Amino acid sequence: MGFAKAWRSREPEEVVRAELSAWSRLNVDEIVSYFADDAVWDNVPLGAVSGHEEIRTAVQGYVDRTTQGNIEIVNLAVAGSVVLTERVDHFVYDGRPIHARVMGAFEVHGDKITAWRDYFDVPNSAS
Questions:
Q1: So what's the pLDDT on residue 122?
Q2: Which residues of 42-59 are buried (b: 16+ CB within 10 A; e: fewer)?
Q3: Are 111 and 15 spatial neighbours (Cβ–Cβ below 8 Å)?
Q4: pTM of the entire structure?
Q5: Please, are residues 35 and 104 in contact by the beta-carbon 8 Å criterion?
Q6: How far, in whole angstroms, is CA 81 from its chain's centroid?
Q7: Rounded CA gap, 42 and 7, in Å?
Q8: Torsion of CA 39, 49, 83, 17, to 10 degrees
């Protein structure tokens, strides 16, 4: 049974909370397990990646340079299969602490994230 598998279907909020929590463990397999095979992950100021392999490569790139991670959910709203998050993403990346204020939009179908769009200001992300 994989990380995102369960005996019942999960609600979109549960899937998103589990995905964001997985980043604190910096486990690439766990992080990627919440994405659908054809998902799109778009860090809007930096660009989008599509499909499991591209997403895995992008996640691996972040994890390889990160020693600590924690995503603080400030606010969360759900409308059907869409989950909106206001967050502060706390990471130690390349030895530097980063506290990025982020707005995220997730689309969840079944137990999988089919789209994840994050909006943030790159210059303020490193403060």
A1: 72
A2: bbeeeeebeeeeebbebb
A3: yes
A4: 0.88
A5: no
A6: 16
A7: 30
A8: 90
Residue 10: per-residue pLDDT: 85
Mean pLDDT per segment of 10 residues, for the chain of length 127 residues? 54 98 98 98 95 98 97 98 98 95 97 98 58
Q: Is the dihedral of CA 103, 107, 113, 114 positive or negative?
A: negative
The pLDDT of residue 6 is: 46
Domains of the chain with bracketed CATH: 12-125 (3.10.450.50)
CA nearest 100: which of 75, 126, 119? 126
The tokens describing 112, both together, are 């999988």
- Give phi and psi for 59, each to the nearest 5: -60, -45
Neighbours of 29 (CB within 10 A): 11
